[in-house]
Amino acid sequence: MTPRWLDWAQRLQAIAQTGLAFTENPFDSERYQQIREIAAEMLAAGSDADIETIRELFARQAGYTTPKVDVRGVVFRGDTVLLVREKLDGGRWTLPGGWADVGDSPSFAVEREVWEEAGFRVKAAKLLALYDRNKHDHPPYAFHAYKAFFWCELLDEAQHLTPNAETEETGWFAEDALPELSVGRVTAAQIQRWFEHKRHPDWPTDFD
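^ that's the sequence the OP posted. Answer follows.
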């Protein structure tokens, strides 16, 4: 379950961001900035994160607050799943993916992420799950986010990986031989769930 302090911090940040987007009253604007500062202090205290980094992150947000959307591609080859090694987060492994960009459909976003991070052409075939990040075993994050996992079919097994800013290596891993994972992005329980979906292709989409 989401820690109470994280839930409070995310909700306060959302109130502050939305308030700052719509208010024209300078006194209300000052109050919303104070609320945003309280949210930053709570997040820093609860996660041991640097408060200046959190302040800068919050200050870059604008407009009505909605959950962020993270898309991840689940690509199987035989009894193995495709993972990429992150350049950040200590070189741990994850499913290829990232934040969806404005203007992209979800399926296009995940297909592009797999191509850019792993070098494989794929086709999004099924939405395996739409999860509330707060309801799964991920470390604390400043914002509320949804995670969309897509089963992607390989269109070409030839790899065309080019240097990129996010990943440094790809690999195919069996269910019982997963490497150290970047749990902010994906958990072992989630990957094991996708292997179960592979064994039961008639299962419906998971959602929170």
